[in-house]
Amino acid sequence: MLNPLFSIAEEIKIVADIKKRKLFILGTVHLAAELLDPKTQGCKLNSNERIDALEFIYELGISMGVNIMEDLSNYQSKTDKFAKKFIWENSLLSEPLKWWQFLNHISPLSKVAVRILSAPCTSAATERTFSTFSWIHNKKRNKLTTERA
Predict the structure, then answer these.
(1) Which of 95, 103, 105, 98 has the alpha carbon at shortest distance from 40?
(2) What are phi and psi of 123, to 5 degrees?
(3) pLDDT greater at residue 83 or residue 124
(4) CA 95 – CA 47 distance, rounded (Å)
(5) From CA 96, how far away is CA 94, in angstroms rounded?
(6) Phi, psi (5° rounding) for residue 105?
(7) According to the model, what pLDDT value does residue 134 have?
């Protein structure tokens, strides 16, 4: 019989660490962007992630002075103005941001979607990593000896 690479306790800890890292990296804005992708409409989101995404979109709509609840419901259920076949055919041919820009004057939700999908990527996670690295590997810390410590 083969020995497993990790013990059960190690495996549980690794899975917990991966979940913790995922929560650290993925924010609600990412979940909202996934939900607003017309190709997927957030199909890979679990119910908690979907609720978080909906709440983020709703609150952003309020802060922008846009009432989007009805539009958001119609988008998810493909009803009302989102029931048109040509709108969804177009989603397969274009990027999500372009698709929402196309709907700019048709749907109040598009204003919120464009804002979310056009947000610039941030390098905050990378900067945190390098900041931690430089704190650990700075000249002062590396020159410490047992006599000076």
Answers:
(1) 95
(2) -105, 20
(3) 83
(4) 25
(5) 6
(6) -95, 0
(7) 57
User: What is the pTM for the complete model shown?
Assistant: 0.69
Q: Which helix (H) or strand (E) holds 57?
A: helix 47-63
**68 burial via Cβ count (<10 Å: 0-12, 13-18, 19+):** buried
Helices and strands (H, E) in the chain, number of each type: 9, 0
Per-residue pLDDT for 137 more than 60? no
Mean pLDDT of 60-72: 92
15 or 131, higher pLDDT:
15
pLDDT-based confidence at residue 132 (cuts at 50, 70, 90): low
Nearest one of 62, 68, 55 to 27, comparing CA atoms: 55
E strands in 1-130: none
CA pair distance 94, 123, nearest whole angstrom:
26
Which residue is listed with tokens 């998810």? 76
Coil, strand or helix: which one is 105?
Answer: coil
Nearest residue to 99 (alpha-carbon basis) of 37, 34, 57: 37
74, 80 contact by CB (below 8 A): yes
